Please model this.
Amino acid sequence: MQGGAGPRAGTSKGGVRELVWGYLESSGLAERPRPVHGRIPNFKGSHQACCSIKELDAFSRASVIKVDPDKPLEGVRLAALQARKTLLVPTPRLRSGLFNQIVPPSGATKEILRICATSQGIKEYSVPVGLDGKVRVDLVVVGSVAVSEKGWRIGKGEGYADMEYAMMVSMGAVKEETPVVTIVHDCQVLDIAEELLDDHDLTVDYILTPTRTIKTNCKRPKPQGIIWHKVSYEMLAKIPILKSLRYKEKQTGKDVTLQDEHPDLANASKSAALNEKAMPGNTRPQAAMGSAQMGQHSSFLKNKLNFG
Model:
């Protein structure tokens, strides 16, 4: 494929996702749950990457850590529990609130802590945290499908990590300086075109891979709160906690007009969604050698994306 500055014509977030998911599967790097398509992908070496978080000062200083429930972040959840941190995990699809706190039983053994860090343990050993709990989160850990060394992130496309962060800002649970960490395979670290990012997209401060710890020194601002004109009535119905936050912000005099109440914005949003689906960015990479080095994995994807 010909090289050149910037992404090739037609590259979209969806195209980047499909490329990464396809490469992880075809190169033998994908781990269960399979297939990784449509997910924050689990990968070989995820536990090793997670263990690196214990070397970060941001982890050592943190008392309260929010970690997404994705499988490749299981090692971070375990590290937090072993270090006796307060561990918060978002509720599934934000249907019944924002956070659950994982509370291991008294005198929990190492094996019980391992179970607590799993998806099953999250169900069995968690208690909901109310909206009025005055939670202050010291460290945020999110999953990614792709991320750049500049700290720009692409998730799986549903927007929950971005929304969770915006809601935490709205609640006063995080500040601009609260560190955000992501855990990925080396091949998921790519050059991402800035024009693919929206103002609601969450950026990251640290990237942990099986071989590297990358401090991004990201200059792009993180979301400043919920962008209400991008929230639809459908989202409001699916995420009940949004209704409470909207009411609170309305009481303070903030403009909480929804997307549906802005006909022009609603139509523009629909057009953008249709355009992304129609873009020829769903080309999957050819099978690559499973024994390739980490750098070769990353280079292969960069070449496929045609980034300079």
Q: What stands out?
A: The beta strands are 64-67, 86-90, 99-102, 126-129, 139-143, 146-147, 153-154, 180-183, 206-208, 213-215.
